Task: inverse folding
């Protein structure tokens, strides 16, 4: 993984696989504190205590094609190698929450990358699931709630080219602009 | 800053346009891109974005592009599966450039890009 945005995509894919109906993504950028945080929370099937305790081990996975699962370990590594922290909370039947923090100026912090593109992909490729995406800084906070979008669109698909183009601009102008696009 | 009100206006406009998509029949082509950790790390996201953009540019109404989980051949990711004319084609080690060629040659013109298929790698 070369970008933190790809880690976000990867963790959100886990939420989708867990049968989530609502996935919440919060990106916090606090330059004055030299701190950045990424939170992904879902209402999917969650994990029991035993699985949760083994989940940061690369040899734990829910897939059946092979016995290696790198998603969570890579995300944990991205935070801990950049002066940050990683935590995961999960309860069977309730959902899972993953939180990573970073020191923005740390030399080993990966670039955030194409956060807007990842959000666009998640939202348009998974129409049956709702997303609540928030980008925060100490001055501003902006949100994209796909439930609101769906209310307006009715039966029109998010994948219609005009709708996709609108969402792309909306994400860039409202969400990405909060941190200025380069991070 | 954009507001969701613009989306409301867009929807009203779209309502009045006839939908060509409904006419596209069962000759639909399905394209799937592997989007698990292995695929993402190998660069599946730019491949998917390119496929979507090319399909949009060429107004391909009977093509459905979606993502899937781990296909099981992580070392050959990014993998793109094409289901066309009752056949399945597995393209491996894909890049945005190869994706463009697959849309132009295979999806539009029906010439399979054999050099990118799994059997050739």
Result:
């Amino acid at each position: 993984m070369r970008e933190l945005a790809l880690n976000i995509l990867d963790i959100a894919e886990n939420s989708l696989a867990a049968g989530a109906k609502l996935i919440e993504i919060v990106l916090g950028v606090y330059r004055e504190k030299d701190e950045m945080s990424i939170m992904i929370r879902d209402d999917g099937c969650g994990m029991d205590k035993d699985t949760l305790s083994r989940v940061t081990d690369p040899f734990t996975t829910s897939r059946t094609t092979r016995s290696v699962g790198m998603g969570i370990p890579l995300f944990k590594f991205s935070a801990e190698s950049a002066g940050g922290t990683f935590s995961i909370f999960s309860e069977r039947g309730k959902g899972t929450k993953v939180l990573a923090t970073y020191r923005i100026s740390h030399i080993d912090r990966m670039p955030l990358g194409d956060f807007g593109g990842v959000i666009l992909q998640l939202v348009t490729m998974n129409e049956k699931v709702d997303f609540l995406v928030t980008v925060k800084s100490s001055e501003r906070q902006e949100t994209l709630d796909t439930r609101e979008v769906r209310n307006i669109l009715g039966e029109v698909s998010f994948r219609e080219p005009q709708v996709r183009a609108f969402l792309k601009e909306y994400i860039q102008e409202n969400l990405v602009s909060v941190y200025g696009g380069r991070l | 800053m954009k507001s969701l009100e613009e989306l409301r206006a867009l929807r009203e406009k779209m309502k009045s346009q006839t939908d060509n998509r409904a006419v596209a029949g069962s000759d639909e082509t399905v394209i799937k891109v592997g989007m698990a950790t292995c695929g993402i790390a190998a660069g599946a996201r730019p491949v998917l974005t390119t496929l979507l953009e090319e399909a949009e540019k060429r107004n391909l109404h009977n093509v459905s592009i979606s993502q899937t989980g781990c296909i099981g051949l992580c070392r050959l990711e990014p993998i793109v599966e094409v289901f066309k004319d009752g056949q399945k084609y597995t393209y491996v080690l894909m890049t945005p450039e190869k994706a463009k060629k697959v849309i132009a040659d295979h999806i539009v013109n029906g010439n399979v890009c054999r050099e990118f298929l799994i059997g050739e790698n």
In short: The CA atoms of residues 55 and 72 of chain A lie 7 Å apart. The domain at 4-179 of chain A is CATH 3.30.565.10 (Heat Shock Protein 90).
